[in-house]
Design brief:
It comes from Kribbella aluminosa. The protein is mainly α. The protein contains twelve helices and no strands.
């Protein structure tokens, strides 16, 4: 650091980053940050798996959707903030680590959310993450220039919504189920309104790299589920064939999801504010589906080894629904505008056929075939970058 870029307290002015900065990549702190979030995702997936296997489908899916919103929203807010204002001084690192501590608190409260609808620990962990984010925005506002009003609105908006979340701690737990959509909508509205007060700069390649890396981590959970099928097969010899087949099919589908996600040029999907919001918000479904896919594989293992009363069709749907949501989400926000008519027919059609797979005599097997067919189409018809519509 030079005297012009640092203060006596060893802090760097948090000025807006250049959105065209060359060589901008994810920092080691951002990667460290992601790893902590994966702990929360893993715990949420495990609880979803148990809820589905115990046939608590409605409650399990609802709890997972609520928990994943907290995980995704806190991750996404930090990611977009970092692309605009990241520094690497001690205070920025410290506040980021405080956010990470909030993730761990949230993860500790996930089991209670699923089992008892007790959101106390989860809400406290979430608020810790968001309060640290308020501090980041306030610090950025001091040197934000034309983005100053936006940073101030971010800080104020996030603070107001956290007060709303805290009120749920003194109200009956059932109240949170009613007000959750309202409070979540308030969270989603903060960036929409703030960015109209003064655009914060974002680096397209840096942002899409961050999303890509988080997707890879989530898909890694599915590979772990594939390995669990093999491990289970070693101990349950009478189910050896079906479990090994499940492991292979899981690997094939996970590889196909990776291929589909990384086929289009994602940076062209965030060229305007509206397109950036669409890209960021639709990723809630993409990320949640990736996390739920691994839970579905665990449910399939339970079904094969007779550790659940869930029907075979229902167990298959716990796998195919997340796959279809993932594919349709990426098609909508990244593939559609960079593909020809053939790709834009095959990809969504393939997702619909995956949804129909559990109704046929060989569930999940054809899913791998449909996914392979989508990949083959993408190989034969490379993306064509077009001007944003």
């Amino acid at each position: 650091m030079t005297p012009e870029t640092t203060t006596r307290s060893r802090l760097v002015p948090m000025r807006p980053r250049d959105p065209h900065e060359t060589g901008r990549v994810a920092s080691s702190l951002e990667l460290f940050f992601d790893l902590v979030f994966v702990i929360a995702v893993s715990v949420a997936g495990a609880q979803l798996h148990h809820a589905l296997s115990e046939q608590h489908i409605g409650g399990g899916v609802l709890s997972y959707a609520m928990v994943f919103f907290a995980i995704w929203w806190a991750w996404m807010n930090f990611t977009w903030f970092a692309t605009s204002f990241a520094t690497d001084d001690w205070l920025y690192r410290l506040l980021t680590i405080v956010q990470m501590s909030g993730v761990l608190v949230l993860a500790a409260g996930i089991e209670k959310i699923f089992s008892d609808h007790d959101f106390t620990v989860g809400v406290l962990g979430y608020v810790v993450m968001r309060v640290a984010m308020i501090a980041q925005w306030l610090r950025a506002s001091r040197s934000a220039g034309s983005s100053r009003r936006a940073t101030q609105f971010y800080a104020a908006g996030i603070a107001i919504v956290q007060v709303l979340w805290l009120t749920t701690l003194v109200l009956p737990q059932t109240v949170l189920l009613v007000v959750f959509p309202v409070f979540a909508a308030a969270e989603l509205a903060v960036p929409v309104v703030a960015e109209r007060r003064g655009i914060t700069p974002w680096h397209p390649h840096h942002i899409t790299e961050r999303y890509s890396l988080f997707t890879l981590i989530l898909l890694g959970e599915s590979l772990l589920a594939s390995a669990n099928a093999i491990i289970e097969a070693v101990h349950v010899h009478e189910s050896l064939g079906p479990l090994v087949a499940l492991s292979v099919l899981t690997l094939v589908v996970t590889a196909a999801l990776w291929w589909i996600y990384f086929w289009p040029p994602h940076h062209t999907a965030i060229t305007t504010l509206w397109r950036s919001l669409r890209y960021g918000y639709v990723h809630y479904f993409v990320f949640a589906a990736a996390g739920a896919f691994s839970a579905g594989i665990e449910v399939e293992i339970d079904s094969i080894t007779h550790h659940t009363e869930l029907s075979e069709v229902a167990a298959s749907y716990t796998v195919t629904i997340p796959i279809a949501i993932f594919v349709l989400g990426i098609w909508w926000i990244a593939i559609r505008e960079n593909a020809d008519r053939v790709v834009n027919l095959v990809v969504p059609l393939g997702a619909v056929l995956v949804l129909l797979d559990p109704l046929i005599p060989v569930p999940f097997a054809l899913t791998a075939v449909f996914m392979a067919a989508i990949v083959a189409t993408l190989v034969l018809r490379p993306p064509v970058e077009r001007a944003p519509s």
